[in-house]
Design brief:
The structure is a single chain. The strands form 5 sheets. Strands 1, 2, 3, 4, 5 and 8 form a 6-stranded mixed β-sheet that branches. With about 525 residues, the protein is an alpha+beta fold. About 45% of the residues lie in helices and about 15% in strands. It is built from 20 helices and 17 strands. α1 crosses α2.
Amino acid sequence: MRKRLPMSQVKEILRVLWEQKQSVRATARSVGVSVGVVSKIHKRALAQGLSWEVVAELPEPELRDRIYGRGAPAGAVRHEPAPAQMHQALMSPGVTLELLHQEYLAEHPTGLKYTAFTDRYRTWKKKQRVTMRQTHKAGEKLFIDYSGKKAHYTDRATGEKVSVELFVATMGASNHTFVVATHTQRVPDFLRGNMLALEYFGGVPKMIVPDRLKSAVTESDPYEPTVQRAFAEFARHYGTAIVPARSYKPRDKAKVEVAVQIAQRWILARLRHEVHFSLHSLNRRIAELLEELNARPMKKLGGVSRRELFDRLDGPAMAALPASRFVTCRWKRVRVNRDYHVAIEDHYYSAPYALAHEELEARITENTIELYYRSTRVASHARSNEKFAHTTDVNHMPKSHREYAAAGEDLSDWADAVGPHTATLMRRIFERSAVQIQGWRSGRGLRRVVEKFGYERGEEACRRVLLHGGQSYRPVARMLKAGLDLQPLPDEVPTEGAPIDHDQVRGPDYFTH
């Protein structure tokens, strides 16, 4: 207890508890003290084996000694505890003030009693900044935020300054800090900042505490905020939890706000006279300044540096990084068209035909497109940059369409056997068809008509149709039926006949005479 009660009040507490047989809460109301004080007096009295009959007869000095303990012997030297070292020790898992007091007494038997010992620490703690007043356990929390003040680099081609964001992350126990510049605060850049932070620290904390950033929280409910989909997936990959800071609770994010201020003063202020021509160059310089920042002694914590504290506290307590990096992704809602394809960045990817007209969620990465229906993955494709083309999994087709698809492969093989012009026209027929089944039908028509008139005539007809940009079998059919493939083209008719030989024609030698 921080303040000793008068013995008369202590006796009254024990009388009401034991003689009147009242509850702790009722006793507190009766005597006019807190429930905690009554509980502590009661526990100490029981620990001394006291009863009301004994207490009623005890002189006050003796009762004081029994409840609060005897004072130190005369002339004994009291060794003062070191609050800054206590604060660091309390960050380690399982360490309590009671344990620290036991260790303190083992080294200094005539030292302060528990109450005085803890009072020293609490008095010191009140004088510190708000971030110092919170005791964060080692390896428990990583605080993240963006700096309100931006960095920049210079575009070498135009000379213009390109503003960039400053991502800041700091460990709760050690204040070990990470800073990196990103082009934006959008989800891909935000996730990359988090990934680089974990790699810089070399481990994974139990939780990540962001402010209510749009890239981190989609619905800022005060009790159940909704974490952004890709960020939640990031947390699952690394085996951590996302615990957004509470709204209107500045102490929840005080740690990172101080880290942001330090990053602005230690890094941005140093960069103001420097010129960098790329984001890479800027981040390389930030990394150099960051090492200096983390190596600086912290006066409030007895001159130990962030790096030293991290190696002692946070580092050993963090979980190991997973074997692979997180693949940055974004999510998009899409609807399945009637041809069982969805459009993503002007390319069409198939989904199971039974989901036509349904809304799906597309997970888009640099190399893959995954489609989810009610949280279940229903399709996966390699990402394609080909505009207005289709990527189709035959397993997504109905049976009739699969049969046509098989026929389409046969048609391509057949056209290759006829000749290059027939193969080119067949490919154009398939590509121009909005629905694949239409292309397969047209291709079958081309095969039928070519086989009717022969491969040689068919190849020639395809050549002529291609010269005029044809993309269908119909012009080939008309040409073969009319025999036009057998007629020479206008630009292929000979323009020079046999030389004319008679007396009225002057030859080239006439003008030499």
